[in-house]
Design a protein that fits this description.
By secondary structure, this protein is mainly α. It folds into two domains: about 40 residues; about 35 residues. The chain is about 80% helix and about 0% strand. The protein contains three helices and no strands. The protein is rod-shaped, with a radius of gyration of 32 Å.
Length: about 80
C-alpha cells in the first residue's frame, strides 16, 4: 500500500510544476489577451446595466401615464370639422 505522505508530496510537486510550467504561462497570456480584447469593447458593468434598466422602466411608466392623459384629454375635446 502507498504511503499517504508520498501521495501528498507527489500531489504538491505536480501542483507546483503546473503553476510554474507552460500551462501557467498559457493561462496568464490567455487572460491578458482576453482582458485586452474586452477593454477595447464597449461593455458596461452589471451595476451600470441595472441602473439603466431601472431608468428605462421608469421612463416607460411615465410614458404610459402621459399617453393615458393625452387620450383622456383627447376624448374630452370636441372634434372640429376639417377646414378647407
Amino acid at each position: 500500500m502507498l504511503n499517504p505522505k508520498i501521495l501528498d508530496d507527489f500531489s504538491a510537486r505536480l501542483a507546483e510544476l503546473a503553476a510554474s510550467g507552460p500551462a501557467h504561462d498559457l493561462d496568464k497570456n490567455a487572460r491578458a489577451l482576453l482582458n485586452g480584447l474586452f477593454a477595447r469593447l464597449d461593455f458596461v458593468t452589471r451595476e451600470e446595466f441595472e441602473v439603466q434598466r431601472e431608468l428605462l422602466a421608469r421612463a416607460r411608466e411615465k410614458l404610459a401615464t402621459l399617453e393615458a392623459r393625452v387620450a383622456a384629454l383627447d376624448a374630452q375635446t370636441p372634434r372640429l370639422p376639417p377646414q378647407q
